Each structure stands twice: as structure tokens, then as C-alpha cells.
Amino acid sequence: MASKPTIYIVCSDRHRNGKTLLARVLVDYLMLNGKDPFIIDATFPEGPLRAAFPGRTALVDFSQIQGQMKVFDTILGSSGRDYVIDLPAPQTENFFKAFRELGFQSEALKTGFQIVVLFIIDKEYASLNAAEDIRTLIAPSLLVNVRNQHVGSILDQQTYGLTLDVPILDRDIVPLIEDKRFSLRAFILGDVSSLPERYHTKLRIFLHAMMTSLREIEPAISLAKLQG
What we know:
Layout lengths: L5 E6 L7 H14 L5 E4 L6 H5 L4 E3 L5 H13 L5 E4 L2 H13 L2 H8 L2 E7 L4 H14 L3 E7 L14 E4 L7 H4 L6 H5 L11 H15 L2 H11 L1
Parallel strand pairs: 1-4, 1-5, 2-3, 2-4, 5-6, 6-7
């Protein structure tokens, strides 16, 4: 993945469109590539990522000032590793408001971080507009368009910038891999015992497509720097 420590922010302006699954795959991808990501799970109080990665996750309530400060202070106070922030839709606007008002981007860049936003763009033009507002706010950092094929998206093939596709995943597989005891990383490494054999090929195809897309982020970061 990226050579410099990177803050990955997974977000959308809409509910239930695959943000947490994307964040989970991203964390496993980073770990498979030798990284040591720390996770900020802002889905309070449920904490689905904390359940999947209990030893490397902080659960925060970003609707509270204390939660906002915890996120930014944690990252700036412990540089040198990657961070993955999973934002629920209601907190996306709050996060980027604080991001701007607190000057977090400039401080993070001075500390040596890169910033990548993965924004799942839903079916309405308002979702595309929300992504473009964030793209402008974080420039020259990178915003990656994400299109979840299961829920649909307003994006088309002519949209500029990097677009990551989340393939449709068999609905029978979803509850199985959402079990906190199931590890996508372990499955990729060959431990398939916790998933019925009839689903192995489908999950492998899904994960291969996701991992292939995630590999495109690092070249896109380099291109964004050149264009910036």
C-alpha cells in the first residue's frame, strides 16, 4: 500500500451501503501487506469493527466533543502507523467540519501522514455532491469514489478519479463473515474451516476483486501529488 503512514477515512452520506465491510477488508489488506493499522470505530455504541479487531480498535462517540478530540489526538500523538477511520453516515458531516475547523489536515501532513478518503457514493446526486465537497476540502489529498454494486450508485464510467467497485456478495455469506470470530485475513491465508465449502469460491472471487482494487490506491496517491 502507501509507503508513508496513511489515514484512511471510510465514509458516506447514506446508511447501510457497505462502509464497515469496506473498512474491514481494508484493514485486512493492510495487515496482509505488512502494515500495523489502528482502527477508529465511530459506530457507537455497536462497534462492529472493534468486535472484528478487538486488540487494535478504539470505539469513539464522534457526536461528542470528547470523542472528536480523542480521534484527532490519538492519531497526531501516535504517528508512524496507518489508521483506518470508519464513520457512520450521521457523523460524516460532523467529522469533516471538525477536520476543517481544527486544521487537522495540515497538522497530519506536517506529522508525516497521507490522507485518503474512501467515499461510498449512493444512488442520489446528493451523495455525489457530498463526495465532491469533501474532495475539494481535502485537496490535494486523495478521495476515492466507491461504488457498491449491491446497493447501486449514481456513478458511471465517465466519473473522473479513481473508482473502487465493491462487488455483489452472496447474501447468504454476509451473516457468516459478520460473525466476530470470522477472519477474512485468515480465510485468504488458507484457513477456510469456518465457512461452508459451497461459499469458498464466491468469497475468494469477492476478496480478489476487492484486493485488486485496493492496490490501485498507492499509484493514485502518487498521481494526486503530481497533479497537486
